[in-house]
Amino acid sequence: MRQTTMAKPADVTRTWYVVDGNGQTLGRLASTCAHVLKGKHKPTYTPNVDCGDYVIVINADKVEMTGNKLNTEKYYNHSGYFGGMRVRTAKEMKEKYPVEWVERAIKGMLPHTKLGDVQRGHVFVYAGSEHPHAAQKPVELKVRG
């Protein structure tokens, strides 16, 4: 008889991955990052334990969207006050806020729970090609597509 192994938080070993967003599609990049952040690429994946790895996304300003989504996709924020609705298009987000644009896409694919809050803290997004995490010796992660 085989036994299902459940990962313990103390037994998790974490790896650092770096993803180059140059020419990548936003959704495919975000789903690959979320897959690694959750730890689903590991054989010891346990849904209720943070067994994911760290992800560094570089060149966030060079991430693409297919079709006419840059003009039609909208991002909403509300301050909580009357008339406090702010609407931005994907084109505006890409030009002015590329880091937030990619972070929002990854956040939407992670669980919206306390565990998801911890996993969201393991992603680092940078607009340029430089990042300050060289000491962690990140491994390159390929995104299909």
How would you briefly describe this protein structure?
By secondary structure, this protein is of the alpha/beta class.
Question: What do you see in this structure?
Answer:
The chain has 145 residues and is an alpha/beta fold. It has a domain at 14-65 and 102-140: Ribosomal protein L13 (Ribosomal Protein L13p, Chain: A). Helix content is 29%, strand content 17%. The chain contains five helices and six strands. A four-stranded parallel beta sheet has the order 5-2-1-6, covered by helices on one side. The protein has a two-stranded antiparallel sheet with strand order 3-4. A hairpin with a 6-residue loop joins strand 3 and strand 4. The radius of gyration is 17 Å and the shape is globular. The relative contact order is 0.24.
CATH superfamily of the domain at 14-65 and 102-140: Ribosomal protein L13
Q: List the uncertain runs.
A: none
- Integer average pLDDT: 95
The largest beta-sheet arranges its strands as 5-2-1-6
The portion of residues assigned to helices is 25-40%
The computed structural class is: alpha/beta
**Major beta sheet, specifics?**
4 strands, parallel
Along the chain, the helix and strand elements come as EHEHEEHHHEE
Number of helices: 5
Question: What do we call the CATH topology of the domain at 14-65 and 102-140?
Answer: Ribosomal Protein L13p, Chain: A
Termini separation (Å)? 40 Å
Strand content: 15-25%
CATH architecture of the domain at 14-65 and 102-140: Alpha-Beta Complex
Radius of gyration: 17 Å
CATH class of the domain at 14-65 and 102-140: Alpha Beta
- Work out the number of β strands: 6
Instruction: Write down the overall geometry.
Output: globular
